[in-house]
Each structure stands twice: as structure tokens, then as C-alpha cells.
């Protein structure tokens, strides 16, 4: 029973991309990770050496601080890893493409739904007989809740 569990675990782990393949294997990643401690050691040495201190106080050094910050390297180099991991979740669709007639029917139905929704929203805001129109309904003398409403059948207020 344990052999089956171990075999299953090794199969699932082997299919996943390795983070180290993205963070260390490319030549530019090795160069970047090697340059990071060199940069920060130079900044530490700048406390004792004047010409280094002048450079590390400059504007370009501010940009290089961000470039050689370890979290920047981790985020930039990890983008490829994240993309590969996310690509595992999105598979190719098994469905068939729509024919021209099906696509036209789908688009016509969608246009009709959007048109109906648009007209319904217009009615909410512009119809003074619709309570959803807000101040148009509240100030309407034909509103039965309005104090000035006169019932046309009885000729009386309310």
C-alpha cells in the first residue's frame, strides 16, 4: 500500500515546474544574484572610502538600489515560474467552435438582452410614474403618496 502512495507522490511532484529553474539556472539570473552582494558590499565599503561614498549618494545609485534589492530580483525572475504554474490551470478547451449561424443567433440574443436592460435602466431614471425614478416620483402630483395628490375618481385627497 505504501508503494502506491509513494509512486503517486513522486508523479505529482515531477510534473510541477521547479522554482530554482527560474531563479538560478539562466545566465542572467546567476549574474544578477552574484551582483547583488557585490553591490551591497560596495555600499558598506562606501562608509570608509570617500570616492565610493560620492557614487553611492548619486541619483543613479538610487535606481541601482532598487535593481539590486533581492526582492526585486525574486519578483522579476519569478514571473516565468508563476506564468508556467498558471498555464497548468488553463487547459485547451474541449468544446467545438460555433458555426456562423449559431454565432449570429448568440450575438442577436445578446444584443436583445443588452437593449432590454438599457431600456429598463432608462425607465428607472426618467419615468415619473415609476417609483424607482427617485425625485421625479416623489415630486409627481400624480403620486398617491404626494401630499398634493387628488384621486381623479373621488376628487379628494387620498
What does the secondary structure layout of this molecule look like, with pairings?
Blueprint lengths: L1 H14 L3 H5 L3 H19 L4 H7 L2 H9 L2 H20 L10 H27 L8 H4 L20
Give a written overview of the molecule.
This protein has helices at 2-15, 19-23, 27-45, 50-56, 59-67, 70-89, 100-126, 135-138. The relative contact order is 0.06. The radius of gyration is 35 Å and the shape is elongated. Helix content is 66%, strand content 0%. The model is unreliable at 8-12 (pLDDT under 50). It has 8 helices and no strands. With 158 residues, it is mainly α.
Give the H and E element order: HHHHHHHH
Q: What proportion strand?
A: under 5%
**Fraction of residues in helices?**
55-70%
- Characterize the main sheet: none
Q: Which regions have little confidence, pLDDT < 50, spanning 5+ residues? A: 8-12
User: What's the count of strands?
Assistant: 0
Summed over residues and divided by their number, the pLDDT gives a mean of: 82
Tell me the radius of gyration: 35 Å
Question: Tally the helices: what do you get?
Answer: 8
